[in-house]
Amino acid sequence: MTLEAHTHFLNVETPEGPRRIAWECWHAHGMEQAPVLICVHGLTRNRHDFDLIAKAMSDHYRVVTVDILGRGDSDRLTAPEHYGYPLYISQMLQLLKHIAEATGEQRFDWLGTSMGGLIGMMIAASPGSPIERLIMNDIGPFIPLKGLTRLSDYVGRDPAFSTMAEAEEYLRLILSGFGRLTEEQWRHMARYSVATGADGYLRLRYDPAIASAFNGLSEDVDLWAVWDAVSCPVLVLRGEESDLLDSGTVARMCEKPSVLSRAFAQCGHAPALMSDDQIQCVRDFLVM
């Protein structure tokens, strides 16, 4: 299978004026008219988390992976207070409009890990949502404070690494919930998680200022009212050891007949979607 992956940039409107976002489109030769799958990463991550699953799904889809503002190759903001879901949703709606105009597609399937799942849920809950089917990877409408507190312990840090090996060791620690990745997968993760800073050290490829979203956080997050407005088919994925999505929340989500779930052993927050069984689970839901 001949695979193509092209990186694009789009200026989106923000409270600070136009800012550039990076997105990538994957497809196999001959699939230029295929349906579109949107993949959106977690809080501190970037589009390359989906490289393996994009390759696997590009025989059926044009797979779009994107860097949310403040991450990866997308622009960072000047004012930290602008980082948050209203802007992330706006960014994605502008990107979806751009893709619709370029491809003629008006409906999209959506795969979101953690933050990316919440963005998808919020868009899916809106009137006239363009989301056809939604996969929420280790996130739901109820998020325990204890899990958010764990994230806040490292999100605002700006560590410096002298070598790629040091960076990989750090990522293996803070991303241990991703599960049992292969050595090659950890190297891939490290390669796209850091870049050389002005001081010559390797730095994480996200703006530490995104941690401002945790300021004043003192209770669980309850988004059940948003969830109640979601009517499209949903697949909920969960790491069995997750501290952000508990089994009770999944059970309540599955009270809707259009919702399915799958839990993965030896994973916390969040399954990396790099193993064959996890990719096959996604394929089984999307490719009928």
Account of the protein in words:
This protein has 288 residues and is α/β, with parallel strands linked by helices. The chain has one domain: Alpha/Beta hydrolase fold, catalytic domain (Rossmann fold), CATH 3.40.50.1820. The chain has helices at 51-57, 85-103, 115-124, 145-155, 164-174, 183-193, 224-228, 247-253, 276-286, and strands spanning 3-14, 17-28, 36-40, 62-66, 108-113, 131-137, 142-143, 160-161, 194-196, 202-204, 221-222, 234-239, 259-264. It has an 8-stranded mixed β-sheet, with helices on both faces. It has a 3-stranded antiparallel β-sheet with strand order 8-10-9. Helix 2 (85-103) packs across helix 3.
Examine the secondary-structure arrangement and name the CATH architecture. Answer: 3-Layer(aba) Sandwich
Helix content: 25-40%
Q: What profile does the largest beta sheet have?
A: 8 strands, mixed
CATH-defined topology: Rossmann fold
User: In the residues, how many domains can be counted?
Assistant: 1
Strand content: 15-25%
Total count of helical runs of at least 4 residues: 9
State the fourth-level CATH superfamily: Alpha/Beta hydrolase fold, catalytic domain
Any idea of the CATH class? Answer: Alpha Beta
Radius of gyration from CA coordinates? 18 Å
- The assigned structural class equals alpha/beta
The string of secondary-structure elements, in order, is EEEHEHEHEEHEHHEEEHEHEH
Average of per-residue pLDDT values: 95
Biggest sheet strand line-up: 1-2-4-3-5-6-12-13
Distance between the termini: 21 Å
